[in-house]
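Worked Example 4.2. Consider the chain below.
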Amino acid sequence: MILLATLNHNLPDWTDNLVTQLKRDPLFEQCELMVLDNGSSEPLAKSTTHRLDENIFFGGGINVVIDYFLKETKHEYLYFLNNDLVFHGPAFLTTSLREALESNASVYSPSVINASIDQCHWKQMWNWGNNLREARWIDFQAPLLRRDILEIIQQYPLELIYGWGNDLYTGCIAEQHNLKTVVSDNNTIAHMNSLTFKENKVNIGVDEFCRNAESKMFNYFSNSELNTLYWELRKYGENYSI
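Applying the procedure from the previous section yields the following structure tokens:
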């Protein structure tokens, strides 16, 4: 039914906490769990199911997960969750699947609260109190992706290894193929946001990481046929309102 996947890099307690939260939902028993350790140098999460020898960042990790999803499973959905999410109650998975099915969404996301003063830059991810909302793309904090769009994507461009741009790329593909993207204001999560940097758990400085991620993303899209749509979707997310 659903492959529940997350990446861990030196944050085992947060990763195990995510799995504990997911297990509260009865639907968990019908899902497959993939906890991919992304080159940790510290003890692994207890929930680890797969392991990489080196850190290939978000963009590399999601490609590994998608490859496994498409080749090794018959699941209809991939729920790719950041490991530092917090939500309450036993209905997160049940609500997500029900709403994705009801709305015929190929791409679905709960709305997101960042555990900081600054909230997500992309305003379509905020909770607007408007139930299920069609959006042109979602920020990749907790994307629920249906098999049809992943069969089109197959793998994200290698230039997006740092994880910046995978979400916008998905939005471009969804628009090109007339696939629906939905954000739910009924299903809201808290994202602790960049804990590997805040807790000094990654062997790269935040400034260097952001420079590399931004330059690779801009270089990819500037040389892609998606460039015009990419910039259109960015402006949409920055100016979104209902």
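The chain has a mean pLDDT of 95. The chain is about 40% helix and 20% strand. Compare this with Example 4.1 before moving on.
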